[in-house]
């Protein structure tokens, strides 16, 4: 996750999704951006950066909390859009080229989160509140229904 938005001096792409977010979204088959040393499982199959999740085969329902450094974020989001079955967790940057050219064109639904997510660091400590809110992006009708009906507070918007 891009820590330029987190109110911290620590800079890393290793920021982990809280378990309660994952639990609210259900079981995932694949996480192509899993941590090297996960604090908890994010999917049945987990590719870390040493495995190069962009080049490996994606199957089933995908969980995507991508590295927020460029160009990786765009590459992973584009691959999920092409795969068409999964949910991505991103910063709410709807004005960005990636949102305008990929997400708004390919996503099925979005959930603008009501509260900012305090992600976890690799050592298991909770990070500070980021300076930007998060959004969940659904690709595929089933994933859009999950976002629409899950317990995570926010505003759901149907796209395609």
Structure description:
This protein is an alpha/beta fold. It has one domain. 24% of the residues lie in helices and 18% in strands. The strands form two sheets. A five-stranded mixed sheet has the order 3-4-6-5-7. Helix 2 links the parallel strand 3 and strand 4. Helix 2 packs parallel to helix 3. The longest helix has 12 residues. The radius of gyration is 14 Å and the shape is globular. The N terminus is likely disordered. Pfam families: Dam. This is Adenine methyltransferase. GO terms for molecular function: DNA binding; site-specific DNA-methyltransferase (adenine-specific) activity. Keywords: Methyltransferase, Transferase. It comes from Duncaniella muris.
Largest sheet composition: 5 strands, mixed
* Spatial gap, N to C terminus: 27 Å
Count of individual helical segments: 4
Strand content: 15-25%
Q: Which residues sit in consecutive blocks of at least 5 with pLDDT less than 50?
A: 1-10
Task: Strand order, main sheet: write it out.
Answer: 3-4-6-5-7
Could you say which structural class the secondary elements and strand pairing correspond to?
alpha/beta
Count the E strands. 7
Radius of gyration: 14 Å
The helicity comes to: 10-25%
Overall body shape: globular
Oligomer state equals single chain
Counting structural domains, the number is 1
């Amino acid at each position: 996750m891009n820590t330029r938005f987190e109110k911290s001096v620590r800079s890393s792409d290793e920021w982990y999704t809280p378990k309660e977010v994952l639990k609210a979204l259900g079981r995932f088959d694949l996480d192509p951006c899993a941590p090297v040393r996960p604090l908890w499982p994010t999917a049945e199959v987990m590719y870390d950066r040493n495995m190069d999740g962009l080049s490996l085969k994606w199957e089933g329902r995908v969980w995507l909390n991508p590295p927020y450094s460029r160009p990786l974020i765009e590459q992973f989001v584009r691959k999920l859009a092409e795969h068409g079955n999964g949910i991505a967790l991103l910063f709410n940057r709807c004005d960005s080229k990636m949102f305008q050219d990929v997400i708004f064109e390919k996503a099925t639904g979005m959930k603008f989160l009501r509260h900012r997510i305090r992600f976890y660091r690799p050592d298991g400590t909770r990070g500070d509140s980021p300076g930007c809110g998060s959004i969940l992006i659904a690709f595929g009708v089933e994933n859009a229904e999950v976002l629409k009906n899950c317990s995570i507070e926010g505003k759901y918007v149907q796209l395609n």
